[in-house]
Specification:
- The structure holds 2 protein chains of 2 kinds.
- Chain A is α/β, with parallel strands linked by helices.
- Chain A is built from 7 helices and 10 strands.
- By secondary structure, chain B is of the alpha+beta class.
- Chain B has 2 domains: 2-50 and 273-413, no CATH class; 65-258, no CATH class.
- In chain B, the strands form 2 sheets. In chain B, strands 2-3-8-5-7-6 form a 6-stranded mixed barrel. In chain B, strands 11-12 form a two-stranded antiparallel ribbon.
- In chain B, a hairpin with a 2-residue loop joins strand 11 (361-364) and strand 12 (367-371).
- Chain B is elongated.
- Classes of the chains: A alpha/beta, B alpha+beta.
- The interface between A and B is medium-sized, with 31 and 22 residues.
Chain lengths: 234, 415
């Protein structure tokens, strides 16, 4: 049983007067608790594909099911609810909310998206702060912590709602290699601990090696898949 | 909801200078409106008080058709003795009335035996008149504040012009409704301070003297020009006016037509137009406040949305519903409005308090050195505050709606 099932996905968008075909006939399946990477050069369609899986955008053609839901037919509000319940996001620029502390940033999806009770929020946020090693920094604001720490907070925020899937678009692009490696290791640890599927895009070859399943994209087409071990049933 | 307020306040504090400038602009607007309302309201109330309490009264009853010819003081349109009794029976039963004063008004010649001029005279029951227009006594700048039979209160300008002093004897000559002329000597018992408006040049005599001058057939044959009425509560003027009008309209003459007509002070004094102009000016000042709040809040919220597009994309991507994003921005505008309204009210009240301490003076007509007594009605405070807050929310709606409708994918790409 797959968590994500994509069949013949095309994505076309307008760039001025020119129609650009960003994805062409993409098909794949990803199993639960996988640790997957989309790789490829700039403009290969990695981000577009992550946006489609994350219900931030819709394919022009094809079938896409995420967590048994046909996401093509969700309206704006349903998409938001679906994302809030099933998907966590990690961004290249961390995208923490600057007016909230580390603790409040992690708490935000539970509070504002899922309206979880206070005791539940406290338990889950504290557990994740502990898991990502940020418990001592919980009262600091994003501008008071380093890039690596920000990305750890972003990982905790993505996981706090217990999503089935976490999508990370170039999560290490703004980090030095050592920190990037630590972030990927943390994501893998979180996958093992919470059994959440992680999909990340990257063009950093050293980081790619950490993925268990690698999909290679080029010019919007799926050029290959490499299975390196771990939970490789995708 | 508390968390939305927390985030809104922190976002406002994030751009301290901008928030301070916007809140200051709203504050200045609120202060300006409050001070204007209190000062203009003080002037308006003084003006109305002077006119109603020293001359006109709150309401007046005349015989039907009298007011249309009021400048001529037509004696043939006076209320006849039978109708006076019917009118008094009605007025005596009204608990809202403090006092009423029947008046005989007529024009005559005023002579100091050397020169002659014209005068408008009011024949009144002094006790009833002073209860109906209590500030009249304060207008007596020379002489007794009690008007006895045989005495006359004359306007200051007339006294100066005719070189008449307190205690001098003068003659009043008048024509009655039948056309016969009669004269009577009076002793100047008081000089009245000139007042602005109708009645400002009127003299006063006892009603029994007026009956004698006009050769009415004693008290039984007395005919009066008008009845001035004073109410316990000036605020109930319109309601009571409707009530009394309904009662008076039932009093019909032999032809089956109404005997009386009722007018509030507003219909009898040109100063009502000035009072209305003050109200219109106040309305436009309030409109300016609304414009200030609307533009400043909308401007700051459009900026806030523009600067936080990526943030909006982030919170939308992680599942925040559009309605909640809308609320987030509307609450920011709401908080700005509250801050402006509260600080504005505090500063405004403090400024009004200071104005009263300074005891600023101004002139009204012939009255000099009237002390400005600015005061603000709590109702105005509430209306202004609620208006500012509602306008702040309305001004935030468009930017907030834009934020809530933003496509997360486009917002996240924003640089």
């Amino acid at each position: 049983m797959s968590l994500i099932a994509a069949e013949g996905i095309d994505k076309e968008y307008q760039a001025g007067e020119v129609a650009v075909k960003a994805l062409k006939g993409i098909s794949f399946e990803i199993a639960p608790a996988s640790f997957v990477s989309f790789i490829g050069p700039s403009g290969s369609g990695k981000t577009t594909l992550l946006n489609l899986i994350g219900c931030l955008d819709k394919p022009t053609k094809g079938q896409l099911k995420v967590a048994d839901t046909d996401v093509l037919h969700l309206d704006r509000k349903q998409s938001a609810s679906f994302r809030g319940s099933n998907i966590g996001f990690i961004f290249q620029d961390f995208n923490l909310i600057p007016v909230l502390t580390v603790y409040e940033n992690i708490e935000y999806p539970l509070l504002m998206v899922q309206s979880a009770p206070s005791s539940e929020r406290k338990k889950r946020v504290t557990a994740l702060l502990d898991a990502v090693g940020m418990i001592d920094q919980k009262d600091k604001y994003p501008d008071q912590i380093s890039g690596g720490q920000k990305q750890r907070v972003a990982i905790a925020r993505a996981l706090v709602t217990n999503p089935k899937l976490v999508l990370a678009d170039e999560p290490t692009a703004n980090l030095d290699h050592k920190t990037a490696y630590m972030v990927i290791e943390l994501m893998k640890t979180m996958r093992n601990e919470f059994k959440t599927t992680f999909i990340f895009s990257t063009h950093d070859q050293k980081i790619v090696g950490e993925a268990e399943i690698i999909y290679m994209l080029e010019d919007g087409e799926m050029k290959g898949k490499e299975v390196k071990g771990g939970n490789n049933n995708g | 909801m508390g968390n939305l307020f927390k985030i809104a306040i922190r976002n406002l504090l994030r751009y301290k200078r901008r928030t301070l400038l916007t809140a200051s602009l709203i504050t200045i607007g609120v202060v300006f409106v409050l001070v204007f309302i209190s000062v203009s309201g003080s002037f308006k109330n003084l003006m109305i008080g002077q006119i109603t309490d020293s001359m006109i009264g709150h309401l007046q009853v005349h015989r039907k058709g009298y007011v249309a010819s009021i400048e001529n003081l037509p004696l043939n349109l006076n209320i006849k003795s039978g109708a006076i009794t019917r009118l008094e029976n009605i007025l005596n039963k009204q608990p809202e009335i403090v006092a009423y004063s029947p008046r005989i008004k007529f024009g005559g010649m005023f002579s100091n035996f050397v020169e002659t001029t014209n005068i408008r005279l009011n024949g009144v029951y002094p006790d009833k008149e002073l209860k109906s227009v209590p500030l009249l006594a304060s207008r007596v700048i020379e002489g007794k504040k009690i008007l006895d039979k045989g005495g006359i209160w004359i306007p200051e300008l007339l006294a100066k012009g005719m070189k008449v002093k307190l205690g001098d004897t003068i003659v009043v000559v008048a024509t009655n409704k039948d056309g016969s002329v009669n004269g009577k000597q009076f002793v100047v018992a008081g000089v009245l301070e000139s007042a602005t408006g109708p009645g400002g040049r009127d003299g006063y005599i006892h009603i029994e003297d007026a009956i004698e001058v006009l050769r009415m057939e004693g008290m039984a044959g007395m005919e009066i020009s008008e009845v001035a009425i004073r109410l316990k509560d000036f605020g109930s003027l319109n309601a009571f006016s409707k009530k009394l009008d309904a009662l008076l309209s039932k009093e019909l003459n032999q032809q089956g037509k109404p005997i009386f007509e009722l007018h509030t002070w507003e219909k009898l004094s040109p100063f009502f137009t000035i009072a209305r102009m003050i109200d219109v000016m106040t309305f436009f000042i309030k409109l300016m406040l609304i414009a200030i709040v609307l533009i400043s809040i909308m401007n700051v919220m459009i900026m806030a949305v523009y600067e936080r597009i990526r943030e909006i994309g982030t919170i939308a991507a992680i599942g925040t519903l559009p309605g909640k994003i809308l609320n987030m921005f509307v609450i920011e505008g709401f908080c700005l409005g509250i801050a402006g309204a509260v600080i504005g009210n505090i500063v405004g009240i403090a400024l009004i308090f200071m104005l009263n301490i300074l005891k600023l003076t101004y002139n009204f007509g012939q009255q000099k050195g009237i002390i400005l007594q600015a005061s603000v009605n709590p109702y105005d405070l509430v209306v202004i505050s609620v208006t500012v807050i509602i306008v702040s929310v309305i001004a935030s709606l468009q930017p907030a709606f834009k934020a809530s409708r933003m496509e997360p994918i486009k917002a996240l790409r924003h640089v």
